[in-house]
Amino acid sequence: MNFFGLARRSVFRKPVKSILLLLIVFAISTLLLAGVASKNASVEVQDKTRQAIGAGFLLERNAEYRTKRVRECSEKIGNKEGSFGGYHQKKVVVNGSEGWSGSTTNEFETLDIKDIQKLAKTKGIADYNLTTAITAVNPVNFKRIEDKDVDQNVDVGGVSLIGNKDMKLDRNVLSGNLHIKEGRMITPEDKDMCVISEELSKQNNLKIGDKISFNDYHDTENSKVSEAEIVGIYQVDQKMSPLMQGDTYRSENVIFTDLRFPEKAEGETSPLYEKAYFKVEDVEAYDEVKENLQKVDINWEQYDLIDNNGNSETMSSNFNDLAKVSEMMILVISVASFVILVLVFLFWLKNRVQEVGIFLSLGVPKFRIIGQIWSEAIMIAVLSLMLSFAVAPAVSKVTANYLVSQQVQQMQEEEKNNEGKVSTEYVAPKQDVQNISVEVTPEMYLLDGVSVLVLITASVLVSGIVILKRNPKDILSEMS
Amino acid sequence: MLEVKNVSYAYKTKKDKTILNNVSATFEEGIFYTIVGPSGAGKTTLLSLLAGLDTAVKGTVLCNGEDITKKGLNYHRKHNISLVFQNYNLIDYLTTVENVKLGGSGNAEKLLEEVGIGKEYWQRNVLQLSGGQQQRVAIARALASDAHVLLADEPTGNLDETTADEIIALLKKTAHELGKCVVVVTHSKHLAEEADEILEIKNGAISFLSD
Question: Which Pfam families match (chain B) (predicted)?
Fold first, then answer.
């Protein structure tokens, strides 16, 4: 009788130990599959989230190029006062010593609208937005929000305007920093329109349809007053990053306007477009669209094309945590499974020491005895794997849901801890996981099957060595 | 046939306690031997050395003139000897006939008939048989092997007198009719007296009482 025949008889005629091992291997296999599936599910969530928030690219002026241009313009003007290419040079005397002071016009600083329009036509770009620089202006017919405890001497006493071509693509909106509570956002067709914070609205009893006025804070008495109609009131979910210290730039005093309003309010004649955002139509084609953009014939030296990963990265990092948790789960299950299986087989062999002794006395080689034990374990494992494969999709979904809910809970707790704090840098937006898709693929089944078989083989070998290194006479003596 | 030559044995943990001291003996086919002696004298140790279950500190065990370690102790146990134990040592998840088949290529059913196990017991789980029947199955398993030497350690130790007599008769038959060398370790005076040759182990030495 070969060892396979013996193994088969042992498995079916000693059902209690077989069922015990079956349950253990079933649990190991199912948990391993759930871990692998959850790890994969996290990636899917990450992509879906990116699609939901709108993957895109941000275009900004390159800081080094600006410095280079300032230097070139200064050299052209020479050692005298004057202007060149939007750069003004003026002699100043500080503490008795002479020096040069430079200033720039909006034309010098702004993104080139022609370049933006060229880029917007690139294949794969669904939409685009232009955002002006944050513009400090004086509130004429309303009062801004002020913190009495803050020293306002260094502040210009104004509010901040952010002009947008299409407010729904503003960075603050995309990243979930705010949402419209009443009214609507700024659209490309708007002119002299604005959206204010609910705090500003409450303090000044302002409502949709009201008009508010601004002028240049440098000359609040004589400068031209510009008026904008309130079309929306927003609520802050995460405090927006202040540009600099002072209440002019605090979240509640930020007013979103149409694209050309800020220049009008501060008495300028040309706009200062600081950022352009290009929304990608299909996130799957993200890299391809990026390549297309970079091929557009513009002077790239003056721009930085930034992956719009502010939001995505945060999500990615959170769900990478999930992937790490899944990986940790797989590792812990693997190690624990190995230990448990070794103990099970040690216990198993200890109870079968008589059988081992009989086989040894019959001249059966040790490797054949190990082979029989291994065959028994594999037979049971195959059945366990079939069972675990059947329940894996459901268990994996439950596991992934649990792990994601833990992540979300953790994020919410962090959010709660940060409540009321004014951010000094970019704040992670509020994130809601809508749905988690978990798929158990054939590759995962294969990986799980191989892992379980490797675990069993290693466990049988380790436990087998412990028993079989003993002298046959000692085993037989123990029997008697 | 089977020979111990100048064999000494001491427990590895108690080196000062010598169990066998330079003993020699030869066991021939067709003869029924019993080994007697006080408890702890080394009877089972000698049987273990003959069976290749353990190795001597000094000296050699020869089978057909060849050192049993030469081809390996597993080979020796599989091809040269067969064993019968006091507690039968049958595999508990196998039937009667399957247990006999473990012994070798011999006709299991015929052997079971020869040792007096009726057909109605053949397909039963071996643990459902009585002690005497189990020992008969163990002997049938030993006979299923091609080995010419049958070594038994207290084969009647757990049996009543009548059953023990039947087992003794079976062992004698194995030696005299099947021409095998049967070596039995026993405390039983009755069993010892049935042997063709009686060896006594005492104080590490071996002597033939029947001479």
Answer: ABC_tran (PF00005)
